[in-house]
UniProtKB/TrEMBL annotation:
EC number: 5.4.99.5
Listed InterPro entries: Chorismate_II_sf, CM_dom_sf, CM_II_prokaryot
Domain of life: Bacteria
Organism whose genome encodes this protein: Terrihabitans rhizophilus
GO molecular function: chorismate mutase activity
Protein's recorded name: chorismate mutase
Enzyme class: isomerase
Annotated ranges, domain Chorismate mutase: 2-93
Coiled coil feature spans: none
Keywords of this entry: Isomerase
């Protein structure tokens, strides 16, 4: 007796079974939302966004992944799930700095936050900061690099938004949605990830090459910059604009799927 060859129908039956299992698990995950809102008291802060927790989850996703599916697909699926869960707990909008490459910033926002979150494009970082500041739980996405203004100068001050995460968080060759940006939000208590502090520097001249990790800068009469420092190396009295989880660089040969 010979084994019957596997047919296309057999393979599709297996795929349907796996899809059903994944969907059932997603529905189960959704069943936790009401309790999450109650336990986190999301109604009081108006925001469910917890970047420190998200960073832990994404690190574990990298460690677990193997197989043929490109890691970028898996990352995007999880980003859509997490962002969807955040939005269902407390609706929010995302304000995007479209003053540079608006297309790249929109891609980043959609990769990171999915398509269910309303997105508004603004003509510069200051407009993003004002929109977030006037909201309860909205997020802002601001492009890093050289800037005609020192837009960061009020970030982190009482009553003003602060930097909460740096994107992209996972760095690997040919990753989609690779625009270099920060996420800002109004102060969210214990929500911040704190391994990297973001500090404002105001110097008479440009700092020596490589002296700091420069996120953004403005050159006018002085050199004004937004610099990332290890939290442990934070100078006393530094003017912080927020903090974020240290991005993870995946080894280029870390497996066929990465
Ligand atoms: O862990 C939480 O606090 C959640 O709200 C859950 C969840 C998720 O979907 O896993 C959603 C939003 C947060 O930013 C982090 C994680």
């Amino acid at each position: 007796m010979t084994d019957q060859p596997t047919t296309l129908d057999d393979l599709r039956t297996r795929i349907d079974q796996i899809d059903e299992d994944m969907h059932r698990l997603l529905i189960q995950r959704g069943g936790i939302i009401d309790e999450l809102v109650r336990v986190k008291r999301t109604g009081e802060t108006g925001s469910a966004f917890r970047p420190g927790r998200e960073a832990d989850m994404m690190r574990r996703l990298v460690e677990r992944h193997s197989g043929r599916l490109p890691f970028s697909a898996v990352e995007h699926i999880w980003r859509t799930i997490i962002s969807g869960f955040t939005h269902v707990q407390a609706p929010y909008g995302v304000h995007v700095d479209g003053s540079g490459d608006a297309g790249a910033m929109r891609d980043l926002a959609r990769f990171q936050m999915g398509f269910d979150v309303p997105l508004t494009l603004h003509d510069g970082p200051q407009a993003v900061i004002e929109a977030v500041s006037a909201s309860q739980g909205d997020l802002g996405l601001i492009r890093l690099g050289g800037s005609p203004t020192a837009w960061w100068s009020e970030l982190g001050e009482p009553g003003r938004p602060q930097i909460m995460s740096r994107l992209p968080f996972l760095i690997y060759p040919n990753r989609p949605a690779a625009a270099d940006a920060v996420v800002i939000a109004n102060h969210l208590g214990d929500a911040a990830a704190e391994d990297m502090a973001v500090v404002q520097f105001d110097l008479a001249g440009a700092p020596p090459e490589g002296a700091f990790q420069v996120l953004a800068y403005n050159i006018a009469d002085r050199w004004r910059g937004l610099v990332a420092l290890d939290k442990a190396r934070l100078p006393e009295g530094a003017r912080t604009a927020g903090s974020y989880a240290r991005p993870v660089t995946l080894a280029p040969n870390g497996g066929d799927a990465r």
